[in-house]
Amino acid sequence: MKTEHKAIFLSVIFGLAAWVMDALAGYLFFYPQSFLDNLLLHIHPHEIYHRLVVSVSFLLFGFIWCRVENKRQALQDSLDRQAGWWRAMLSNIGDAVMAVDNSARIVFMNPVAEQLTGWSFSDGRGRPVEQVFQIINEFTKLPAENIADRVLRDGAVVGLANHTVLITRTGQEIPIDDSAAPIWDTGGSVRGVVLVFRDVTARRRGEEELRKSEARNQALFENMSNAVAVFRVEDDGQNFIFVDFNRAGEQIENINRENVLGRSVLEIFPGIGEFGLLDVFKRVWATGQPEHYPAAWFQDDRVAGWRENYVYKLPSGEVVAVYTDETRRRLAEKALKQSEARYRTLFNGSNDGEFVYGLHPDGTTTKFIEVNEVACQSLGYSHQELLSLKPEHVWVWPDSDDNGGITSKLLSNRHVLFETGILGKDGAKKLVEINAHLVYLHDQPAVLATARDITERKQAEQRLIESEERYRTAIESSSDGVVIVEGDTFIFANQRMAEILGYNRPGDILGHKISLLSIPRTEAG
User: How far apart are CA 346 and CA 124, in angstroms?
Assistant: First the structure.
């Protein structure tokens, strides 16, 4: 039954009860007639008026009470809804929330507070806050000030000191930060304190990682070989002010960072406009698109050299130029080209065939890397044709050795000299002397081989050998004794001279002195 229905029903009951009680009192004390006559049949007019007034009064009271009760119930429902809403909100926010009364005893804990402290609300309710919320200094390990007592005392919002650690029920230490605020009643008195705190382990870890990352980035910035300049943009992209400049930039430009920071790039490098880099800065700042500015010659009243730039824009709006000093490389490239030109002149101007080929780790050869004009002419190949071949395609290795053996000697001694045959494109064979040296190209082993045509020399040597053989045969077959003396010693004698001197073989007198010819000998001698 609804509250208003109950109020009306009770008012009616009380009105009827008053009617009955008045009739009973009249029967007992005032009127001689029966109770029924006093109740319904012969009611005195004064009694009717009195009973009606009492009954109506009860009805009016019932109606008034009903209205008051409805308003009270509505107010209670509103308070219950608000309390439920606040309780649900406090129970589901990400921070831990704990409330204490004016005696600093716990009256509320949300699930996050239960999780962090290790105390359930049922176990912690009514306990002193310092028993559940134990905090110490992270470094000294001394108990921290109870901020709930401070709030109750001062009536002001209080925040935790830095490096505060919460000791959980199990003894675990959790770094936290929090704040405490007073709970006021309608009279302006502090009725309690609400504590809001959170686990900052992840934030501490993130801050530490950020600190390390910033330190790494700063170390990279300071120690990278490329120059880095960071600019703040002013005058709507017309002026660029140095805000940072690394050590490599100081060395390249021969200027101190202190003399650069806070100054315009036009003041430090007045030639940047003519150089074209200032326009790049403006475009990058306006579009946000990075640009590579190829190496070009920069010169002003203070510095000169080749500079290659890469320019980009930071999310902060600052413009960064990363650049290298290409002067030495350009000079080295120029010197290298000149050296290569001299080398190529010598390489192609040689009277001998010049071959360059590489070596694999297993000792096998690569195709020819380079050959000179003499090599092409002597073999009858074009330059491109010869570069498609390997040494074993044109060289006939000696019978006493092979490519593997020669390569092994070359790797061991870094030089080898051998003779071999060489086959031309037409199949013609020539004899060559190969003078091979181990060299390194781009840190890889290679062979520089000079092939000298020795065909005519070998033919001349063969003719000499044949001539010497003919002369030797004629002398050895002569009927006259023939000797050859070097100093006073026999170095050659034919068979007839051995017989004249009484020896069986020419070799028996070789090495003897010439005085042997003047000593008479007997047959027995």
Answer: 96
Q: Give the tokens for residue 508.
A: 């028996």
Residue 433: partners with Cβ closer than 8 Å, 6 or more residues away = 417, 418, 419, 451, 452, 454
Contacting residues for 493 by C-beta, under 8 A, at least 6 apart: 481, 482, 483, 484, 501, 506, 509, 510
Any idea of the CA torsion for 145, 148, 151, 153, to the nearest 10 degrees? -80
Rounded CA-CA distance 51/39 in Å is 10
At residue 505, the 3 state secondary structure works out as coil
Structure tokens at 146: 């109870």
Residues 132-151 have a mean pLDDT of: 86
Please give the Cα distance from 22 to 48 (Å, whole number). 10
Whole-angstrom distance, CA of residue 513 vs CA of residue 525:
17
Could you please report the per-residue DSSP string of 152-180?
A: HHH-S-EEPPSSEEEE-TTS-EEEEEEEE
Helix (H) or strand (E) holding 177: strand 173-184
Given a contact cutoff of 8 angstroms between Cβ atoms, the answer to whether 260 and 254 are in contact is no
- Whats the size of the chain, residue-wise? 525
Residue from 342, 280, 339 nearest 309 by CA? 280
Give me the amino acid identity at 393: H
33-46 burial, b if ≥16 CB within 10 A, otherwise e?
Answer: eeeeebbeeebeee
Q: Sign (positive/negative) of CA torsion 495, 497, 502, 506? A: negative
Task: Quote the DSSP letter at residue 143.
Answer: B
Q: Rounded CA gap, 486 and 500, in Å?
A: 20
Q: Is the model's pTM score more than 0.90?
A: no
Q: Check whether 520 has a pLDDT greater than 60.
A: no
* Interval 14-68: pLDDT, tens: 666 666 666 666 656 565 666 565 555 555 565 565 556 666 666 666 667 667 7
Look-up: residue for tokens 């926010």?
Answer: 93
Chain centroid offset of residue 189 CA: 58
Q: Per-residue pLDDT tens for 231-254?
A: 999 999 999 999 999 999 999 988
Cα 202 to Cα 66: distance, rounded to the nearest angstrom: 57
Q: Dihedral through CA 197, CA 203, CA 205, CA 207, nearest 10?
A: -130
Q: For residues 235 and 244, what is the distance between their CA atoms, to the nearest angstrom? A: 19
- Mean pLDDT computed over 452-466: 77
Which of 334, 272, 320 shows the shortest CA–CA distance to 298? 272
The CA R_g of the chain, rounded to the nearest whole Å, is: 59
